[in-house]
Amino acid sequence: MLEQVGPAGAVIGVETSADMIGLATRRCEGHANVAFHEASATSLPVDDASFDGVLSVQVLEFVQDVDKALAEMHRALRPGGRLVLWDVDWSAVSWHSADPDRMSRVLRAWDAHLSHPTLPRTLHARLTATGFERIETEGHSFISTAYTPDCYGCALMPSIARYVAGREGISEQEAQLWASEQPQLGEAGSFFFACTQFCFTAVRI
After folding, report:
1. Which of 2, 100, 174, 184 has its CA 20 to 30 A from that of 131?
2. Is the pTM of this model over 0.70?
3. Which CATH topology does 40-203 take?
């Protein structure tokens, strides 16, 4: 983003985690036109109409009051400013397992780590109600038919296994069995994972 705005522009990051802010700060050392604030998406520490663009990637699905966060983004944008949102409809994930009942329970338990696991379904209406215009939507699919550590589903597996253990009647042993099945499916040529990340763009008029 710093490369996109160039030396005449600036980038402001807002994050609730001090650890993440520390990491981002280290990554951006040597750049004077970037700053980070520890704050909530529902209370942005910025002036009204002070930004040309706002980008949010898989943030709002974790935010309880989505409408307040959208109102804050609208407030921060100048007239003509552009908003870009990315979020996943987690209920639409397609993930193969030889034990589909266990997979369903794991994914249902995983939904609980979000405030809004099906948020994209309501974002167009929410953006309209907030006052945004020229709203457009695109879907971008992550599809993997091979088990590789860097595929989206595979990268999530350790976090999912830790989170679901003890939820929806899933024991720690069952969570590990779920996770260990996936590389086995990969070796057998039967691995399949797909999910869709939705991109919404809008403009403050």
Report:
1. 2
2. yes
3. Rossmann fold (3.40.50)
